[in-house]
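Reminder to self: tokens first, then the designed residues, so the page reads top to bottom the way the pipeline ran.
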């Protein structure tokens, strides 16, 4: 593949992580920081100007006469945030987006839209409120965005394009979900028994009506959390919480006669059994229940019909120990998530595998759909969504088969292990996760699948070891998944997947960095991926999912940091896909891009 230099363009990105762009939950948020900026009107900005060239080649394209070998696309974008603080306890913000696709001149192709609107403040110096756009997370089983596919410990080289995706999909990096509605919270302090209690509630609209067959869909609920005082010589302490997330369709809007109700209620606890100063011992967990109902409302003769009525429970319980020095935490948790447990706001994935890719979606003379790859997951923002799905979303077993829907994945029982090592000042920060799980109910058979997961990541500061005077950081990540099932030959499942990541960030001159990164995925074996109806009921198994393929993504680039929040990066990435069963399907992708990013 060749990339003509005339097609390579610089990308200007104005990046706006302003203090008010992302809402905060009650345990994170606070009143508007008027003292920092002062009452009045303030302007901030987020923008980008992205131009990239992508090429495709390889065996699959040798006889292809229909697919264009090179695509050039880009955009110039500015998100201008107008932030107003009329007084010390009120703040409003609107974000106006100006966007022009690459190649649009003299106003051609320019769009202007309002991207974000919100207001927040504090009432009587007690009650905090926010209306409009907000980002909110409760617990992993109620309102939560699971971790993304195809990532363990993202190398710095791949972060610029991923940050673009995060901004477009409203991902904050803290498992928060973008909602539009209202949020209230307040705290109560106590003299004895309890230290503090926090209360929050919210109401948001997930879907708008079309005034015919699609009704408005809402989600509401809240959380109460309390922290006790410390007791006795053991300095024991209790953190308790109760959470509700309730999703429903408002059939009073439009002409729809069918709607859903999905209620998820949980209680959680983190009990500090011993606190010896240097180390602590905890007992922790969360348990709850989901109920989902789909009903057809009464018709002319007054009869109503219940189409779906399911409920199930989950339990997560275990122990954890922490050592403040050297910053080590280990935990062992037993989990049991029922086969019919459904929590749409916690199980909805970041990636929608049914969406059309924005580049090279179909290739070959037969115009076959190209599978999603590591390259797409790192570049194609069109695959990502922050929406809450109506039922369990499709997933790709090659990227996540053990917990495809995060901690709230239904039909799982077993043990989960965690370890974190992060000293305040050290050369190494590392994390290790493992899961040994089994199905609770078989899918299409009485035989049960066994799941194994090991995920490890590490950041190593090499400069002190090598005597380098500037920052030099090595990032490593690895994920191994195995799925097994016995029985007759038609029932057998044996699928293994491995994902490895490595990256190097080296400052070679004042604020000039060399970036290197690599990812490799390999999958082999077969599994049965069910087609679902009624939220998470199995309808059919169209065919065994068989894979024996490899992916490799390599990249290199330079980055110059003008100051905090402003940088220029120029990169080249190369991707190769190999299918051992059908080598004629092999292909490769390449990409060159330059990005200038600014915050102001």
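Designed residues (600 positions):
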């Amino acid at each position: 593949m060749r990339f003509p230099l005339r097609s390579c363009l610089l990308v200007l990105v104005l990046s706006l992580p302003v203090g008010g762009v992302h809402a905060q939950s009650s345990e994170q948020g606070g009143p508007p920081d008027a003292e920092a900026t002062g009452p009045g009107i303030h302007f901030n900005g987020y923008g980008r100007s992205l131009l990239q060239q992508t090429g495709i080649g390889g065996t699959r394209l040798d006889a292809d006469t229909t697919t264009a070998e090179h695509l050039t696309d880009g955009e110039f974008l500015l998100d201008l945030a107008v932030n107003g603080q009329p007084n010390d306890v009120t703040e409003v913000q609107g974000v106006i987006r100006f966007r022009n696709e690459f190649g649009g001149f003299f106003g051609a192709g320019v769009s202007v839209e309002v991207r974000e609107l919100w207001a927040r403040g504090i009432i009587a110096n007690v009650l905090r409120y926010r209306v409009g756009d907000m980002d909110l997370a409760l617990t992993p089983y109620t309102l939560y965005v699971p971790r993304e596919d195809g990532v363990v410990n993202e190398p710095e080289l791949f972060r610029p394009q991923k940050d673009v995706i995060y901004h477009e999909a409203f991902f904050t990096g803290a498992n928060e979900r973008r909602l539009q509605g209202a949020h209230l919270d307040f705290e109560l302090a106590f003299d004895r028994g309890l230290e503090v209690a926090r209360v929050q509630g919210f109401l948001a609209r997930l879907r708008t009506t079309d005034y015919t067959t699609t009704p408005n869909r809402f989600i509401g609920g809240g959380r109460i959390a309390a922290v006790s005082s410390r007791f006795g010589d053991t300095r024991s302490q209790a953190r308790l919480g109760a959470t509700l997330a309730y999703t429903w369709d408002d059939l009073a809007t439009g002409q729809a006669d069918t709607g859903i109700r999905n209620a998820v209620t949980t209680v959680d606890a983190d009990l500090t059994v011993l606190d010896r100063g240097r180390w602590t011992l905890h007992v922790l967990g969360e348990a709850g229940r989901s109920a989902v109902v789909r009903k057809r409302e009464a018709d002319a003769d007054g009869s109503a019909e219940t189409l779906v009525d399911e409920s199930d429970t989950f339990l997560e319980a275990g122990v954890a120990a922490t050592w403040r020095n050297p910053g080590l935490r280990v935990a062992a948790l037993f989990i049991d998530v029922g086969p019919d447990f459904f929590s749409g706001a916690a199980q909805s994935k970041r990636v929608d595998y049914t969406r059309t890719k924005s580049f090279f979606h179909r290739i070959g003379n037969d115009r076959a759909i190209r599978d999603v790859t590591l390259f797409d997951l790192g570049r194609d923002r069109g695959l990502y969504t922050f929406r809450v799905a109506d039922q369990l979303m499709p997933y790709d077993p090659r990227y996540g088969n053990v917990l495809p829907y995060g901690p709230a994945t239904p039909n799982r029982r077993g043990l989960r292990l965690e370890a974190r090592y992060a000293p305040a000042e050290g050369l190494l920060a590392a994390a290790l996760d493992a899961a040994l799980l089994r199905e609770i109910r078989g899918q299409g058979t009485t035989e049960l699948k066994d799941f194994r997961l090991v995920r490890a990541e590490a950041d190593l500061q090499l400069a002190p070891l090598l005597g380098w005077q500037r920052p030099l950081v090595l990032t490593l990540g690895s994920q191994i998944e195995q799925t097994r099932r016995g029985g007759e030959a038609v029932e057998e499942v044996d699928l293994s997947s491995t994902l490895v990541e490595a990256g190097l960030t080296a400052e070679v001159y004042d604020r000039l960095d060399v970036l290197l990164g690599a990812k490799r995925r390999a999958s082999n074996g077969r599994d049965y991926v069910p087609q679902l109806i009624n939220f998470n009921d199995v309808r059919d198994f169209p065919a065994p999912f068989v894979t024996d393929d490899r992916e490799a993504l390599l990249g290199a680039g330079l980055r110059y940091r003008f100051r905090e929040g402003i940088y220029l990066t120029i990169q080249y990435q190369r991707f190769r896909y190999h299918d051992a069963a059908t080598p004629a399907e092999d292909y490769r992708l390449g990409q060159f891009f330059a990005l200038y990013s600014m915050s102001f």
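The helical segments are 34-37, 59-62, 159-169, 344-347, 374-379, 463-466.
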